[in-house]
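Hello,

Our lab assistant flagged a job as stuck in the queue for most of the afternoon. It eventually completed. Since we weren't sure the result was trustworthy after the delay, we are filing this so someone can double-check. Below is the sequence as submitted and the structure that was eventually returned. Let us know if re-running is recommended.
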Amino acid sequence: MAEDNIDKQAEQGGPDGRTDHKRRIFVGGILASVMLLEAGAIVVTMKFTGAGAPRTAVAGGLEPASGAQVEEDVEVAIAEFKAPNEQTGRVFVYDVKVCALVSREHRDALQQILEKKKETIADRLNSIMRSAKPQHLQEDKLDTLRRQIKYVLDKVVGDDNIIREILIPRFMKFRADY
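-- returned structure --
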């Protein structure tokens, strides 16, 4: 008789009368509804905190005032040189051209300084190239070299505000130890 009760409970899925399959569907439905409620709460939270559609920026006040002159930068050639570098264990020769971006009003003063200190500048630039680490010479934009060259030129010129940017229009690497 006790065995008959156990068999009936097994057929009915347990003491509460639900089968195992029905219980799984019930629990799955509860989990799905909880997940949907969480998703709804996230959407409502995002709407109220302002994370909606992206906004476009408007450039206001950037136009020059009428009658005001816009200061234009000019390019000044600093040096063209070839310098060896042996930091990798092999000798590479770099053919480099360095220019500077300066304001139009500082162009003449910079050119006079460049004429007076031509050899000093050539020495400093060659020193930078000879001692440059391989990873600096392989950078896409040569940012480290530009920064080092600008620092040296600012020291030679004596004013940090004359040179705005360093340009390296030619930077060619040749292997020299065949």
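-- support follow-up --
The delay was a queue issue, not a problem with the job. The result is valid. The CA atoms of residues 78 and 115 lie 10 Å apart. The mean pLDDT is 84.
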